[in-house]
Amino acid sequence: MGAALLLYVIEGAAPLLTITLVWAVVLALRGNIPRHRKIAVTHAVATVVSYIVVIALVRNGYRLEGKTPEWILNAHLTVIYAIPLFLIALPATGLTGRRSAHRALAFVYAIAWTAALVTGAMIFMAHRGWLR
Ligand code: HEM
Q1: Nearest atom (ligand 1) to Cα of 98
Q2: Quick one: which of 113, 2, 110, 96 has its CA closest to 50?
Q3: Residues of the chain predicted below pLDDT 70
């Protein structure tokens, strides 16, 4: 089925989620914890909402009918499915003062996010026929 709606959602959500994540990291590194909490929670809620919307669209037949190589799709899905686990563990450790666990999780989460963005961009490029 048409991919346009799915593309609009992903193209709209990905920059918003990336900006809020980078913003949350900058605030945390500057020691502005009250604002870090607000922006990080905004990022987490927005991520969960876009997740639900994308899954609903895919389940209803909206797909990017690209010729994405299987390994890229598998890598992307593996990372994407791990993200909700971090979104439970990050607030759980941050809000209970387990700072070193929170920092370690934050580091892995940032890497996972970068991997999701890179593999997501590759799927997009395959859909456009820029990647073979
Ligand atoms: C999802 C909801 C999140 C909540 C509610 C939250 C909350 C907090 C809180 C309360 C602290 C202070 C901990 C303490 O003083 O013991 C903290 C610190 C920190 N957070 Fe988060 N956080 C969240 C997500 C994230 C994310 C997504 C990242 C980065 C990927 C991140 C990176 C950090 C870092 C690096 C610190 C340490 C700051 C320092 O040591 O000065 N947090 N967070």
Answers
A1: 16
A2: 113
A3: 1-2, 65-66, 132
Residue pair 17/50 in contact by the 8 Å Cβ criterion: yes
The minimum-distance atom of ligand 1 relative to the CA of 109 is 30
- Decide: helix, strand or coil at residue 33: helix
Task: For residue 78, give Cα distances in angstroms to 3, 16, 68, 82, 127.
Answer: 22, 22, 15, 7, 20
69 lines ligand 1 (CB under 6 A): no
* CA of 91 relative to ligand 1 center, distance in Å: 8
* Cβ pair 82, 132 in contact under 8 A: no
Residue nearest to atom 41 of ligand 1 (CA): 31
The answer to whether the Cα torsion of 123, 126, 127, 128 is positive or negative is: positive
Please classify residue 106 by burial: count the beta carbons closer than 10 Å to its beta carbon, then call 0-12 exposed, 13-18 middle and 19+ buried: buried
pLDDT tens readout for residues 98-127: 999 999 999 999 999 999 999 988 988 888
Q: What is the average pLDDT score of the chain? A: 91
